């Protein structure tokens, strides 16, 4: 592979070779990765077209400041490289595969008398991993089958030859009930044990035919040697394996090793079903949502999902069935869109799964939206508000023993936190711990600014506190001349009582009401946000005070150290060279000498 860099205006200098292209923005951040059969033709298409280019693509093109390419031998190599780069960097304009689950694997350990067990962490040096399994139930079925067919140990003993020879172990219950042949005490040779492990690996790969052939051959050998009891045991195991295969049979056993991948779409997403079939048996089925970024065509969505899923599930398929015909062949990728027969039935089965997944996602989205709308409508009813409170802001103060008074404002839109709208406030005009005056200051500052900037006011203002804090907030709104333009309430912590301005008595909302839980959630979020900010300020001030007490260390130097090390503990643990690199040789040495002198003083 050969890599090169180009400026956007040099796209005509690109080679006419298959490869991968990467787009970088002004900050040299990777924003898009694509693959191409012909790099010059593909990249040129972004810059030459004046019509038919969607808004998102135009926005991306405006951001491009540098192009990097990597040439490969085939288009399939380009697809695989593109997949690896997207997985590693997750550029913002690339298709997003929505799948945040971690899937289990079965591990065959690399040790004397290997074990087989479930894990979700891949550490390659531990052994060979099989999976991932999209269904824990399916994985347990395979593991149960292996434990019925073979006597694989489950203990964690170190079965090194010298430890077995030293007779360090005794057989356990698993031996007595027939689940283990006692390799720990030399009752089973490692060579015989490893034959079982080899057959277990065939089953884990979905290659049931090899395991069936092994049992059939062993059964015949024992029968010829007149060991009819052992031959019967092997026949029972062969029957068990055939029953397992029959349960998972979805097509003719003549269909040996293929993947099926189908796609259905809506305006924003694609819904993909991926299946792996071996010897006519379904060994993996997985649904994923593919989030569109640049209004990509269905063919691109399907190919991207296929390559990533084959990578994830370590596919070794000889053939891939798709429900969409590709516009051109990809060398090295054996793709087929069947029209009749068993393979067509597999496509139909996969499509049925993809359509069901799409319907399920739409239903779930609708339920979530209905619940969100229901809660804020219930809040409107409970508080007799003139409008649906789809924009709520909540204020809270924080000071401990009167130090570092701060306040917070959190914003919820449509019943959900709008974190970008959250605000912190340093109290500027109030001396000492005065919650009422502090509340008046921050409410006045917030809505004076919104009023001057002509921004929309909230549909509900929530004050964390009782009558006193609420009255202070009302004063601020009256001084701004906007009181009455938006509803305002206070929530008292002790009994979760809701106060309206001017009302002597609070109103009580049912403790089980979703609308009260929403107000509590908003109030708790404002409190958390204020407390977090207060702790940060206290820590900064304590840090600065301790440092500025050192000779020749002033506020500017203390701020430099704070910005770099974040805490007193970290600066005390830092090497001398790092301290000098931050504040210079003279001050760095003075600070280091002072810390050495005062070690253990605290």
Task: Give a verbal description of the structure.
With 602 residues, this protein is an alpha+beta fold. It folds into 5 domains: 2-94, GIY-YIG endonuclease; 106-247, no CATH class; 257-360, 2-Layer Sandwich (Nucleotidyltransferase, domain 5), CATH 3.30.420; 391-536, UvrC, RNAse H endonuclease domain (Nucleotidyltransferase, domain 5), CATH 3.30.420.340; 549-597, DNA polymerase, domain 1. It is 45% helix and 19% strand. The protein contains 18 helices and 20 strands. The protein has helices at residues 39-48, 55-63, 75-89, 136-149, 161-165, 173-176, 190-204, 208-224, 228-247, 298-312, 341-383, 435-453, 467-480, 514-548, 555-565, 568-573, 576-583, 585-597, and strands at residues 2-6, 19-24, 30-36, 66-71, 96-98, 105-109, 116-119, 127-130, 257-265, 269-278, 281-291, 319-322, 335-336, 391-400, 403-413, 416-417, 423-426, 460-464, 488-492, 497-499. The strands form 4 sheets. Strands 14, 15, 16, 17, 18, 19 and 20 form a 7-stranded mixed sheet that branches. A 6-stranded mixed sheet has the order 5-11-10-9-12-13, sandwiched between helices. A 4-stranded antiparallel sheet has the order 1-4-2-3. Strand 6 and strand 7 (116-119) form a beta hairpin. Helix 14 crosses helix 15. It is extended, with a radius of gyration of 34 Å.
